């Protein structure tokens, strides 16, 4: 638990308007420091970690791009017998002198100086360390990992203080994509162009936000929302305390919530301008609109996935976003309008409806929200492959399949389960959810993330992950079985979480990456049910460091 001084600091930071870093001390750009956002590139080659500088030790935060393929190679592989391991390994399935009398059910070297040692070159944790840091083995240094090979950090840049999240969107015409980071310290949205999963242009940074060799920080042009004359015709500056962020499928519309105000802000990231590869570096999103009049303390936001019919038929539609609130027992539907008929266009978002939360006793204090397009996508996958009337009719029918909606609620602690209302139009505005069930949770649920695990038969299966910050747990909810199938024990302050399945076939790895806010490291969670280690932390990336006020 954090000390009272840390909680006092938390309260003071929630009241912060703009933080002026002054000269200050530059943050160590290769260090994970109060991580608030993690994201995996679509091809699984990079892990992006956004750090927040929560305790004001430095004058800003940092964003790192980790070589995820090398990180995954360091993660132990679970086993039940020697047959699950490679030829030069065996399964550590019995107590031996090499494993200290406690078998790990991991593949270990069969011979050599590390034979039979579950942690290899890493030390085994002490009983004291296990109290706050689950997992058998010591941490993997980000800059000098075991086995050599140099730093695991491929690139890093400095960002503003008090980042809250990181959102990834693929560039429509490639290569790479773009990261969007809400930053509370200067009330801006940072954007960073990335060239992951591809051969980067030798003349372009892997992470690019206007930094130079003399100044590794994102430049002013990559901090949006603070220049009304350049960004919009409404004289707008981004409201204080930006928090949650969601983006339309193509990344053209971005909605940000504000945790101390009844406001949601719209940024437009013009797909025509930013989708043409490295030539569009520096063409950033623009703050276009602020929707007020919402309940106070808007927190969670999730984008409604487009139906396949929208893209294939070129239909005009208004992307939708669902928003949750701490001070209201409701979920609000917002719609984005590009206003392309006007000259110049003046895009905006509008409230398209509200649904009350009645599946809980009170329903207040909702946090994260996630949307599951799985049932609709499975319906669309059955449609004829041709582009004729039969496919169009099938896709039209599938567009009416409801989407699953999951929200974390704290009064009482529970996972709200619902679905959007059926409709027969891919562009219908009726995407409000109806909540019909409430699953009890441990205390402190904060974020909800949709992802996949590998089942006991090696198949992909959808799961809903509920991060509970206060109780140091992540609940794994099976939407088909309608139950919490696993509680993952984490370290202190689990905050951001990103599940990902690396590879295909029998050699696929299902892992989850959790940013531990309190002790400043990323934990790697086993998400393969074939492994005896399913649902446990199997690797720590970065040296754990408790807050200065709790030492």
Describe the protein.
It is a single chain. With 551 residues, the protein is mainly beta. It has helices at 4-14, 68-74, 127-132, 228-231, 271-274, 308-313, 374-381, 389-398; strands spanning 35-40, 46-51, 61-67, 89-91, 107-109, 153-159, 167-170, 177-183, 188-194, 207-208, 223-224, 242-247, 253-258, 264-268, 286-291, 298-303, 320-325, 330-337, 348-356, 366-372, 404-410, 413-420, 433-440, 445-454, 460-468, 473-478, 483-489, 494-502, 509-516, 521-526, 537-541. Strands 7, 8, 9, 10 and 11 form a five-stranded antiparallel β-sheet that branches. A four-stranded antiparallel β-sheet has the order 1-2-3-6. A four-stranded antiparallel β-sheet has the order 12-13-14-15. A hairpin with a 4-residue loop joins β8 (177-183) and β9 (188-194). The longest helix has 11 residues, at 4-14. Mean pLDDT is 90; it is low at 1-17.
List the helices and strands and how they pair.
Blueprint (H helix, E strand, L loop, with lengths): L3 H11 L20 E6 L5 E6 L9 E7 H7 L14 E3 L15 E3 L17 H6 L20 E7 L7 E4 L6 E7 L4 E7 L12 E2 L14 E2 L3 H4 L10 E6 L5 E6 L5 E5 L2 H4 L11 E6 L6 E6 L4 H6 L6 E6 L4 E8 L10 E9 L9 E7 L1 H8 L7 H10 L5 E7 L2 E8 L12 E8 L4 E10 L5 E9 L4 E6 L4 E7 L4 E9 L6 E8 L4 E6 L10 E5 L10
Antiparallel strand pairs: 1-2, 2-3, 3-6, 4-5, 7-8, 8-9, 9-10, 9-11, 12-13, 13-14, 14-15, 16-17, 17-18, 18-19, 20-21, 21-22, 22-23, 24-25, 25-26, 26-27, 28-29, 29-30, 30-31
């Amino acid at each position: 638990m954090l000390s009272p001084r840390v909680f006092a600091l938390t309260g003071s930071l929630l009241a912060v308007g703009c933080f002026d870093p002054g000269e200050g001390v530059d943050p160590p750009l290769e260090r994970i420091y109060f991580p608030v956002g993690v994201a995996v590139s679509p091809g699984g080659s990079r892990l992006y970690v956004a750090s927040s500088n929560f305790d004001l030790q430095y004058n800003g935060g940092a964003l790192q791009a980790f070589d995820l393929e090398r990180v995954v190679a360091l993660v132990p592989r679970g086993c039940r017998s020697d047959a699950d391991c490679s030829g030069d390994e065996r399964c550590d399935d019995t107590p031996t002198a090499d494993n200290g009398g406690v078998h790990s059910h991991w593949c270990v070297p069969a011979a050599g100086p590390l034979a039979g040692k579950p942690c290899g070159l890493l030390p085994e944790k002490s009983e004291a360390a296990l109290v706050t840091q689950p997992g058998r083995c010591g941490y993997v240094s980000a800059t000098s990992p075991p086995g050599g090979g140099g730093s695991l950090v491929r690139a890093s840049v400095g960002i503003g203080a008090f980042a809250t999240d990181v959102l990834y969107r693929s560039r429509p015409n490639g290569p790479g994509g773009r990261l969007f980071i809400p930053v509370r310290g200067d009330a801006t949205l940072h954007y960073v162009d990335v060239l992951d999963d591809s051969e980067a242009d030798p003349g372009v940074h892997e992470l690019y936000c206007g930094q130079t060799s003399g100044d590794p920080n994102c430049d002013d042009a990559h901090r949006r929302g603070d220049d009304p004359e350049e960004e919009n015709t409404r004289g707008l500056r981004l409201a204080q305390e930006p928090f949650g962020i969601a983006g339309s499928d193509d990344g053209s519309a971005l909605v940000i919530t504000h945790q101390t105000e009844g406001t949601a802000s719209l940024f437009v990231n013009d797909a025509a301008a930013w989708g043409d590869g490295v030539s569009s570096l520096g063409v950033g999103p623009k703050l276009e609109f602020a929707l007020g009049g919402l309940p106070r303390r808007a927190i969670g936001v999730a984008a409604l996935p487009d139906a396949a019919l929208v893209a294939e038929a070129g239909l005009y539609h208004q992307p939708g976003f669902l928003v949750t609130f701490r001070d209201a027992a409701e979920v609000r539907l917002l719609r984005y309008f590009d206003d392309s008929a006007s000259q110049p266009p003046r895009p905006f978002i509008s409230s398209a409806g509200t649904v009350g939360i009645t599946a809980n006793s009170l329903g207040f204090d909702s946090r994260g929200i996630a949307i599951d397009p799985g049932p609709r996508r499975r319906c669309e996958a059955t449609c004829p492959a041709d582009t004729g009337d039969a496919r169009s009719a099938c896709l039209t029918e599938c567009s009416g399949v409801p989407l699953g909606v999951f929200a974390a609620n704290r009064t009482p602690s529970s996972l709200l389960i619902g679905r959007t209302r059926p409709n027969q139009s891919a562009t219908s505005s009726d995407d409000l959810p109806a909540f019909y069930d409430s699953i009890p949770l441990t205390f402190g649920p904060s974020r909800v993330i949709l992802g996949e695990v590998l089942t006991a038969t090696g198949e992909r299966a959808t799961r809903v992950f509920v991060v509970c910050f206060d109780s140091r747990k992540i609940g794994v909810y099976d939407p088909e079985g309608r139950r919490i199938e696993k509680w993952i024990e984490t370290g202190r302050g689990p905050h951001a979480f990103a599940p990902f399945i690396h590879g295909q076939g029998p050699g696929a790895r299902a892992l989850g990456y959790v940013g531990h806010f309190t002790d400043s490291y990323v934990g790697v969670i086993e998400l393969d049910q074939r492994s005896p280690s399913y649902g446990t932390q199997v690797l720590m990336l970065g040296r754990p460091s408790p807050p200065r006020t709790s030492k």
